[in-house]
């Protein structure tokens, strides 16, 4: 289901700002920071203030249209059609690699089995050292 259909289904208005913000995130090749989204929105619709954009991002996240993560102490967003995935971030060189969400399924299943705890693994960032930096260190 498209984001616009999801918003309609949830009884939310399809304002020009919501449509523009959704389109900007959808058309991005990767993740966008809130600042990048604000810049792109204001370039196309100069009268839109930051608080409206932040509120819209929260609404889109709650509706499941976008995913939000924190990378380098900054919130980043990507459209739901890019799917769930996690990030492996090298703490030495800053390289970020997307990894499939199924990588955490064994951990999720272990936590359920051992503790009866259902973890919500949404768009996690896992810090470590990439193979290239590891090889440089050895």
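-> sequence recovered:
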């Amino acid at each position: 289901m498209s984001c616009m259909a999801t918003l309609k289904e949830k009884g939310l208005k399809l304002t020009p700002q919501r449509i523009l913000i959704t389109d900007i995130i959808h058309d991005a090749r990767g993740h966008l920071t809130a600042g990048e989204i604000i810049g792109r929105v204001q370039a196309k619709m100069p009268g839109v203030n930051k608080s409206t954009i932040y509120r819209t991002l929260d609404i889109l996240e709650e509706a499941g249209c976008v995913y939000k993560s924190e990378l380098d102490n900054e919130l980043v967003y990507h459209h739901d059609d890019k799917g769930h995935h996690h990030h492996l971030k090298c703490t030495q060189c800053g390289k970020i690699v997307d990894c499939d969400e199924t990588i955490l399924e064994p951990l999720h299943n272990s936590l359920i089995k051992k503790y009866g705890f259902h973890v919500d693994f949404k768009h996690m960032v896992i810090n470590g050292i990439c193979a290239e930096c590891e090889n440089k260190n050895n």
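Strands lie at 32-33, 66-71, 74-79, 85-90, 96-100, 125-128.
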